[in-house]
Amino acid sequence: MKALDVMTSKVVTVAPDTSVTEVAKLFLRHRLSAVPVVDGEKRVLGMVSEGDLLHRAETDTELQRPWWLSMIAGAEDLARDYIKSHGQHAADVMSPKVVTVEEDTPLAEIAQLLEERRIKRVPVTRNGKVVGIVSRADLVRALASRPKTASALSTSPSDQAIRQELLRTLDSEGWTRPNEINVIVTDGVIHMWGVVESDEIRKAVRVAAENVPGARRVESHVGRVPAWAFVD
What is the pLDDT of residues 100-115, one digit of tens each? Predict the structure, then answer.
């Protein structure tokens, strides 16, 4: 799936000269937590989020630096704080460094981007112009609405095919050693025995089994032993 498949296409945007008060009203009216700031051609200039409106003079919530930090803060930092708390327009308080994606950007890439940049949403552009927005919530909705896999809708694979697929996965992933796990499949139910060196590996083995197409249930009897027991 790509950005185009999950994005919200009716994007609420604001102009650089939109007042901070109007931005706050838009948040409440549309139940938003951020809006892109765009120019007359719908090109993204920045983003204004709830975080940008937290420290405002109107609500007596200006950022109060400890006296010692104010002493060492540069004039530029102090000026930036003042603009954030007293600026009257979206352009004054917005975050100008905005990460955008294209309509054909894969969801996996977007998920990684949101995690690495620690952001909650990213504008989607076409020829530089905003056409949508993808948020963390959109990714969750995509997961929740994911249809049954084709394998689940078709004839179930044989027990032997299920076993071979799981063994292939365990061999290719690299976190288990050869012949550590014994697998038996009966009527689509995977039974596993063996020992591994950590709880995380044991959990990964179970997850791998649960993801094999055609598996009806997983019965794991895999135990764990200290890592030193694996030393040759």
Answer: 999 999 999 999 999 9
The residue out of 110, 144, 178 marking a domain boundary is 144
- Domain interval for residue 184: 151-230
Residue with tokens 């999950």: 6
Beta bridge partners of 217: 189
Separation in Å, CA 64 to CA 53, 61, 88, 94, 211: 15, 8, 20, 20, 51
Phi, psi of 216 (to 5 degrees): -85, -35
**Residue 154 buriedness (CB in 10 A; 0-12 / 13-18 / 19+):** exposed
Specify the residue for token string 């803060």.
Answer: 73
Under DSSP, is residue 14 helix (H, G, I), strand (E, B) or coil? strand
d(CA 201, CA 192): 13
pLDDT tens digits along 203-229: 999 999 999 999 999 999 998 876 555
Number of domains the chain contains: 2
